[in-house]
Design goal:
There is one protein chain. With about 130 residues, the chain is of the alpha+beta class. The protein has five helices and three strands, in the order αβαααββα. The protein has helices spanning about 15-30, 40-55, 60-70, 75-85, 120-134, and strands at about 35, 95-100, 110-115. It has a three-stranded antiparallel β-sheet. Strand 2 (about 95-100) and strand 3 (about 110-115) form a beta hairpin. The chain is globular and about 60 Å long.
């Protein structure tokens, strides 16, 4: 029987869904904030939460488990060395999902997924530095 095996299927095959969620969680940890459809954001949140919880115990075993999902070495190091220590005092709720509006074209509901410690000022400062250099 299939008791308690609920998952967000997202209308795609299993391999596509797994690869898409891996890419999305990697991008989330790399950039701190991503924009996607609301259904995908809801599917992404539990995966990201579990990886941050796993990264709070920095052992070789937990790094190997996380490396199955995050296949970018730099992002994996960022998760274990910067993101997880910043979240060490929290017991959960490492990400937030905010509704953004609707996408032009297919009118899909968009959402922003971000880490709770995301600071948009840093990115804006980098963008201003790039403009000054030009």
């Amino acid at each position: 029987m299939r008791h308690a095996k609920t998952t967000h299927k997202l209308g795609v095959k299993t391999n596509h869904r797994v690869a898409m969620l891996r890419n999305m969680v990697t991008s989330l940890f790399q950039h701190g904030r991503i924009t996607t459809t609301h259904a995908r954001a809801q599917a992404l949140k539990p995966l990201a939460e579990k990886l941050v919880t796993l990264a709070k115990t920095d052992t070789v075993h937990s790094r190997r488990i996380a490396a199955e999902t995050i296949q970018n070495r730099e992002v994996l190091q960022k998760l274990f060395n910067t993101i997880a220590p910043e979240m060490s005092d929290r017991n959960g709720g490492y990400t937030r999902v905010m509704k953004k509006g609707f996408r032009k074209g297919d009118n899909a509901e968009l959402s922003i997924v971000e880490l709770v410690n995301y600071k948009p000022e840093e990115r804006e400062a980098k963008d201003e530095d790039k403009k000054k250099k030009k």
